[in-house]
Amino acid sequence: EVLADRYLEIGTRMDREAGAEYVKSNIQSLNIPEAQKQALIYKYQGTRDLQDIDGRITSAIENKDTASLQQLVTEMDNGGFGYTDGPTLQQKKAQVLSRIDALNKQVEVEENKRLQLAGKALTEFKSQVMTGRALDDDYLQTMGAAVQGTEYEAEYNFYKSQSTNFQSFGRLSTPEQLK
After folding, report:
1. pLDDT digit string (tens) for 2-56?
2. Residues 6 or more apart whose Cβ sits within 8 Å of residue 110
3. How far apart are CA 22 and CA 7, in angstroms?
4. What is the average pLDDT across 134-148?
5. pTM of the complete model
6. Which long-range contacts (CB under 8 A, 24 or more apart) does 87-91 make?
7. Whole-angstrom Cα distance, residue 149 to residue 127?
């Protein structure tokens, strides 16, 4: 029994197919009933199912990839991971759904933060334009990137296009400005 468990441990460190072959070939030499040998092979496959699920969860979280997590749930619902028992699979499915929810919340928070920063950037940009000072290309690029894809982008483009008018106006003498 101890030797069989050791074969399983070693087999799970290999890729799935090589590990299965390793486990099968080594347990054949053990003096245990055939049913117990088959149970060990199923145990190996069940362990590999869980390793696969956990690995895919970890990878998806690192990449903030909710689509991969949703695909994993679909596989679980459609009979994938056949060596894993129902309660364990339900527990893993709940874990995945929880991770999807957490990632969606994180993305939402990051997007809200980005929108707030874009609003601040636009306010700063408008005050710079209103001063009539010349704006360098790096500054324009930085501000443009900050508001890109937000509700502030159109307003930024308007002020950017008008900045040369403000600069020209700022160079006029006071009597000329009052005309």
Report:
1. 899 999 999 999 999 999 999 999 999 999 999 999 999 999 999 999 999 999 9
2. none
3. 8
4. 91
5. 0.71
6. 88/50
7. 21
> Are the beta carbons of 5 and 27 closer than 8 angstroms?
no
CA 148 – CA 142 distance, rounded (Å): 10
C-alpha Rg value of the chain to the nearest Å: 31
Residue listed under structure tokens 């982008």: 153
CA distance 23 to 7: 6
Task: Tell me which residue of 133, 141, 139, 135 sits closest to 170, measured CA to CA.
Answer: 133
Question: How remote is the C-alpha of 143 from its chain's centroid?
Answer: 26
Is there a contact between 161 and 140 (Cβ–Cβ < 8 Å)? Answer: no
Q: Which of 123, 135, 124, 131 is nearest to 160 (CA)?
A: 135
Using DSSP, state whether 152 is helix, strand or coil: coil
> Closest by alpha carbon to 57, among 90, 10, 98, 85?
98
- The tens digit of pLDDT for each residue in 108-133 reads 999 999 999 999 999 999 998 888 77
